[in-house]
């Protein structure tokens, strides 16, 4: 045998091994559609490693777009998007939107902000900066590159509403100096900025007012009703007494982004439950022996909130479709796995502080 043949024979199994490894590497990603250059968009998702952002990342990646996730990992987690790391259409940037960002994109989903009361109240000034300076920076970016920006606004802009249900024309009832103001007013001024950039600079904007959402990848220490109830029921603790799912929400956001409605649109589930009904439902789904406990309410806590979604239905043909119990069961499964993880001491999910301050208690 010639020397070349010998080398070839020796190298052949190695080549085969490399091919196998390459295949296993490319096959580890969820399936992604192929989009032509014309249809493929470069999409920035701020807060893309968070609870809602990571579900949106999944959808847009699977639809075949190029997705850049920007997150400062205050409440977002790398784990939520780790299944895309290394994919040629995916990029993860550890960046705080309070600092300017210069990249080239076609669409911006601006979701970056802590969203649950314990998280956004932990550092109210940081929450204000994120929603004001952060939104200004993203609008500046949108203006520079001619991108369309969708702001993830919130039902909190309605405050503790005096009308029921709330449609998009309601101006809200917000205490500007209360404990929730950093988030409520932050989002209100973020909306104001969107329309100022639209009118003055011609930036294309979309504003989704999102109502309470729950589901997998929601933080266990989120502090909102569903996560609290499930956690307490699973751990046999007392339940300290409407919602919809990330898949429904993500479809609503994408539909709004690609529609021509620039005025605010409510996205939420109009099916209303009392907190007590909800506690009882979760208790029975978890098959928990927890008892339900009544505590004094928190300051400025909205008494009742229900979205009027006629606008989304009429203009986007959108409404939530996932049944409540199905969503709850999925979330319960996700939290059970997270608790197991914790018990095994492998990973303890906790919101990370943007900046630790001496002597300031952590909220969890
Ligand atoms: O102060 C003012 O008088 C001006 O403020 C803004 O203009 P400017 O501050 O130049 O900033 P924008 O281009 O609107 O961008 C806002 C911010 O976004 C940030 N940015 C901009 C572009 C970009 O690609 N990325 C990015 O993060 C910058 O930090 C910038 O401060 C307004 O657009 C002007 O109309 C106004 O006259």
TrEMBL record:
Catalytic activity: UDP-alpha-D-glucuronate + H(+) = UDP-alpha-D-xylose + CO2
Keyword Cytoplasm: no
Keyword Transcription regulation on entry: no
GO biological process entries: D-xylose metabolic process; UDP-D-xylose biosynthetic process
Required co-factors: NAD(+)
GO cellular component: Golgi cisterna membrane
Protein name (database record): UDP-glucuronic acid decarboxylase 1
Cellular localisation: Golgi apparatus, Golgi stack membrane
């Amino acid at each position: 045998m010639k020397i070349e043949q010998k080398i070839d024979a020796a190298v052949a199994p190695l080549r085969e091994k490399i091919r196998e490894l390459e295949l296993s590497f490319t096959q580890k990603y969820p399936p992604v559609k192929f989009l032509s250059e014309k249809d493929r968009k470069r999409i920035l998702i701020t807060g893309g490693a968070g609870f809602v952002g990571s579900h949106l990342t999944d959808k847009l990646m699977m639809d075949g777009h190029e997705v850049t996730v920007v997150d400062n990992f205050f409440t977002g987690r790398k784990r939520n998007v780790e299944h895309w790391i290394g994919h040629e259409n995916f990029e993860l940037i550890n960046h705080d939107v309070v600092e300017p960002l210069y990249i080239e994109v076609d669409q911006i989903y601006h979701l970056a902000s802590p969203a649950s009361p314990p998280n956004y109240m932990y550092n109210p000034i940081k929450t204000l900066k994120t929603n004001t300076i952060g939104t200004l920076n993203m609008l500046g970016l949108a203006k520079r590159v001619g991108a369309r920006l969708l702001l993830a606004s919130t039902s909190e802009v309605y405050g503790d509403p005096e009308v029921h249900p709330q449609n998009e024309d309601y101006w809200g009832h917000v205490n500007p100096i209360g404990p929730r103001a950093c988030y409520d007013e932050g989002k209100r001024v973020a909306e104001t900025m969107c329309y100022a950039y639209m009118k003055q600079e011609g930036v294309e904007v979309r504003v989704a007012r999102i109502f309470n959402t729950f589901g997998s990848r929601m933080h266990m220490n989120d502090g909102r009703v569903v996560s609290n109830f499930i956690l307490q029921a699973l751990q046999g603790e007392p339940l300290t007494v409407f919602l919809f799912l990330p898949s429904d929400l993500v479809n609503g956001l994408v539909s709004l982004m690609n529609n021509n409605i620039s005025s605010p649109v409510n996205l939420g589930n109009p099916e209303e439950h009392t907190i007590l009904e909800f506690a009882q439902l979760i208790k029975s789904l978890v098959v928990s022996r927890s008892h339900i406990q009544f505590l004094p309410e928190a300051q400025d806590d909205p008494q009742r909130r229900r979205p009027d979604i006629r606008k989304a239905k009429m203009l986007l043909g959108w409404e939530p479709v996932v049944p409540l119990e199905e969503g709850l069961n999925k979330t319960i499964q996700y939290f059970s796995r997270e608790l197991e993880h914790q018990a095994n001491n492998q990973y303890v999910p906790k919101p990370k502080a943007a900046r630790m301050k001496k002597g300031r208690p952590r909220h969890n």
